[in-house]
Write a structure and sequence with these properties.
This is DinB family protein. With 202 residues, the protein is mainly alpha-helical. The protein has helices at residues 3-6, 47-66, 71-75, 86-105, 122-125, 131-154, 171-197; strands at 161-164, 167-170.
């Protein structure tokens, strides 16, 4: 395969027999072409920069998996019997960001996004195919990410400590946990997106 042909998206039909979307790649055998990938590939040094860079890329990956889809597709529970959807994952990660950076690290008293005792899975169960619900979810998620990024940028070092249910937690641990959390859910997002329109992850 020549370099020029590798840059062209694979042409596919919309669906395979049985209603399943045909697998397709955005570029060669990956999700997007390198020049369209917002995730940094540059080499960084030092623990702080490495942790921040990996977390940034995981956040961008979730956003990429949702790109180009309408409200119905984002809310679609495309891998039954799971109640997961791409919109549900965005709502869930808004809640996770809020919990670890506002509540645990900053010590704020917060009303948890989406989750209540009466509706413990509301972030997923309440993900509905409504453009306003999509805008609200992405708005909350981006606000929480912005707060987290400010907190990390202003922290004196990775030993800054918060409290989670009486247990001291270092910022270093939170960053590692957030990378783990996004990585796990981005794996879910790969399958959800592929089942929606056949777009294969990377």
């Amino acid at each position: 395969m020549t370099d020029e042909s590798a840059r062209k998206p694979v042409e596919t039909s919309a669906e395979l027999p049985g209603g399943l979307p045909e697998r397709q790649f955005g570029w060669w055998d990956v999700f997007v072409a390198p020049e369209d990938d917002p995730r940094g590939g540059e080499l960084v040094r030092g623990e702080h920069a490495i942790l921040v860079g990996y977390l940034r890329n995981q956040r961008l990956t979730l956003e990429m998996k949702c790109a180009g889809l309408d409200a119905a597709a984002l809310a679609r529970r495309s891998v039954p019997p799971s109640n997961l959807s791409l919109l549900g994952l965005v709502r869930h990660m808004a809640m996770v960001e809020q919990n670890w950076f506002r509540r645990v690290m900053a010590g704020e008293s917060v009303v948890r996004h989406y989750r209540t005792e009466a509706s413990p899975n509301e972030e997923f169960d309440g993900a509905v195919p409504d453009p306003e619900a999509v805008a609200e979810a992405f708005g909350r998620w981006r606000d929480e990410v912005a707060f987290a990024e400010r907190f990390v940028a202003e922290a004196r070092d990775l030993y800054v400590t918060g409290v989670d249910h009486g247990r001291p937690v270092e910022l270093r641990e939170v960053l590692v946990h957030m990378i783990e959390e996004y990585s796990r859910h981005n794996g879910h997002a790969d399958f959800l997106r592929e089942r929606i329109d056949g777009r294969v992850g990377q």
